[in-house]
Amino acid sequence: MSRIISGAAGGTPLTAVPGSLTRPTTDRVKEALFSRLDAFDVISGARVLDLYAGSGSLGVESASRGARAVDLVEADAKASAVCQRNADLINGVVGRKAVTVHRSKVEPFLERAHETALWDLVFMDPPYPLEEVALAAALRKLATHLAPGAVVVVERSSRSPEPAWPTDVERFAEKKYGETRLWFAEPSVPDAIEGDDLPAAGED
């Protein structure tokens, strides 16, 4: 049974999606992932987006650990209902609506998101059968909604190729856990302007 590992609701069991509709992140991988994110110091106060959310366990874990706001995006009706139950659980613990559920496919959700909607931490854990071209398209739409210094975590089969990152997003780390591989990416930082290109003092 999946559970919230740490934070305000640490140890609380989560409702799982029935059957084999989703491929939930194991507690072992989740614990290793959040240990790394804690080291990056990107969770507390963050705006979090959990795409292909499944049961919402990654987003709910973030809320338990102090994320400011979490959006769970899941298209399947049964999985979305499970997301809502897990969101209600953590919202009750923290005493506010920290987690919001959106029943939607990923690309339409990102297309509808206001241009000023920016997230600090994004989880993308699509079903393994999702084609790489579809993942690449979602990443392109996501790129315009990343806050400066944001972290994107993509979870895929260890046999899958590296995601095709948009030109304004770059991978900075990856880690394999058995059959699972995590890719970590961030917005690209524009090249610094060379000092010789700056006008000298007193020049226009």
TrEMBL record:
It comes from the Bacteria. One of its GO terms (molecular function) is methyltransferase activity. Keywords: Methyltransferase, Transferase. It holds the Pfam family Cons_hypoth95. The keyword NAD does not apply. One of its GO terms (biological process) is rRNA methylation. InterPro entries: RNA_MeTrfase_RsmD (IPR004398), SAM-dependent_MTases_sf (IPR029063). The keyword Transferase applies. This is 16S rRNA (Guanine(966)-N(2))-methyltransferase RsmD. The lineage of its organism: Bacteria, Bacillati, Actinomycetota, Actinomycetes, Micrococcales.
